[in-house]
């Protein structure tokens, strides 16, 4: 992995909850680093966006909770970046969806459109783990 990769811990309370009641799986080329965050390798970068590869799936409650963060992209905005993920067969969301607003320092919060992705368990603006990229 390189320093250009995206590293993100998602939201610690969410990860802990799913790990206690279900399972978290990582799909290469994404990997989990020793501090518990996921690393997604950079596959394309321009002046307006960065695209990464790999996936992390969170499953609990016999599949009633099923969230997959697949092939994240960072796209430049007026205030920082937006983080989007691809939909998956296990998700009600099939197209790319912006799930987080990211500040220039890597701080992140749940985007309005990300509320449905997390099945309405968190409100827009809920703090997420910081990203490095």
Oligomer, anyone?
A: single chain
Q: What structural category do the secondary elements indicate?
A: mainly beta
Number of strands: 13
Instruction: Give the total of domains.
Output: 1
- The end-to-end span amounts to 12 Å
pLDDT < 50 runs, ≥5 residues: none
Number of helices: 2
Q: Name the average pLDDT.
A: 92
Q: What would you report as the Rg, rounded to the nearest angstrom?
A: 14 Å
Percentage of β-strand residues: 35-45%
What is the 3D shape? globular
The main sheet comes to:
9 strands, antiparallel
Care to describe what's here?
With 133 residues, this protein is mainly beta. The protein has one domain. It is built from 2 helices and 13 strands. Strands 2, 5, 6, 7, 8, 9, 10, 11 and 12 form a 9-stranded antiparallel sheet that branches.
Give a quick summary of the entry.
This protein is 11% helix and 44% strand. The protein contains 2 helices and 13 strands; from the N terminus they run E-H-E-E-E-E-E-E-E-E-E-E-H-E-E.
């Amino acid at each position: 992995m390189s320093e250009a990769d995206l590293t993100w811990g998602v939201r610690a309370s969410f990860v802990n909850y799913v790990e206690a009641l279900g399972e978290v799986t990582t799909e290469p080329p994404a990997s989990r680093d020793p501090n518990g965050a996921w690393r997604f390798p950079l596959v394309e970068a321009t002046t307006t966006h960065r695209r990464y590869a790999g996936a992390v799936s969170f499953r609990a409650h016999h599949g009633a909770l099923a969230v997959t963060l697949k092939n994240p992209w960072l796209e430049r905005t007026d205030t920082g970046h937006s983080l989007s993920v691809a939909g998956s067969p296990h998700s009600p969301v099939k197209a790319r969806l912006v799930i987080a607003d990211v500040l220039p320092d890597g701080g992140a919060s749940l985007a309005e459109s990300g509320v449905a992705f997390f099945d309405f368990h968190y409100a827009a603006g809920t703090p997420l783990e910081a990203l490095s990229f």
